[in-house]
Write a structure and sequence with these properties.
Shape: elongated
Radius of gyration: 34 Å
Helix content: over 70%
Number of helices: 18
Distance between the termini: 110 Å
Largest sheet: none
Order of helices and strands: HHHHHHHHHHHHHHHHHH
Length: about 375
Amino acid sequence: MPFCYLKLQKLEPSLVRWVFWWLCVAWIAGVNSGCRSFVQRTSNSQLVAARQLSLRGADALQRSRQQDAEILFSEALQHSPLDERAHWGYATTLWTRGDRQRAINHMREALKLSGKNPDYAIRLGEMSLEVGDRKSASESALSVLSANRNHAEAWALLGDTHQSERDWPAALECYHRALLVRSDYPRVQLSVAELYRHTGRPQRTLATLDHMSDQRATAMTDPEVLLIRGQALADLNRREEAAESLAKASERMPSHRVDKQIQLVHAQHRIGELVPARMTLGRLLASNAGDPEVLRLQSMLDLSFKHLSEPVLPNPTDRGVLANSAVDVLVSPQNRALNDGSQLPSRMASGLLGAESSGWFKR
């Protein structure tokens, strides 16, 4: 019989039980420690695998391989839901294919896991604003600014929230703060130019766009810059320059920018450029035939062409000769195909409509 057992036999039974229980506790603690160590090693390996998949997903995003990126980020989250980059990437792919609420949820989780990464906060705010949640967007911007007052993207986001509320002065102030931090900030500069137009300062709009062009030559051919320039020139009654700028914008504007295409049609119609407006509308109808706003624009243009092709009755008391000559021009054989625009020169609509005969263009 072992010596230790003989020794224990001579002790009090209570002391023996006490020693026995402490040995059990020590053994259990050792087992638990080993289990925790094993679980931790397993968790760490899963997180490492998730991050590797996330890096591959980010690379796929840069290469515009959206489907591959979504699969990789999804697999990363299956390995470990603690990888903030996987949540960010998965939110990005979900947003691209229109699953907005799930995208916002994953971006919110990425922000929490990252320890309030400002880039994630700004992106979450932009998503919130796009779905109409101005309060959340403003809170995201202010949370970043509370830690860093010189964060240009946060000032831009706060300006966007004020612009969505039509608070032009507050929006301009925020945009100018963003430009103080980053002078070459095209998105914000475009917003400033548009706000100057909304507040009746087209000259300031043109000055802002000229400054953009001085900073980067590509701004001169940017379709959004050309659109805003054309609108500002129209505000200043510089019709020929406006028509030229709007025509270039129409040629370059991406088809998915439906809102900008609609603005183009309105701007061209406003200055009497009916045929270019119909061409722009044709591109819209090709991909958005069921859009109510697009159909309304089509009806508006059809009505305008109908008015233009109607004979103008002579005015016996004022410029009768000019009125008769206008009738001859409007109903001449080369202009009978007005309704499809195939034989109407691009300047004819604006040339035929003088100050007295173009009142129906004004909206």
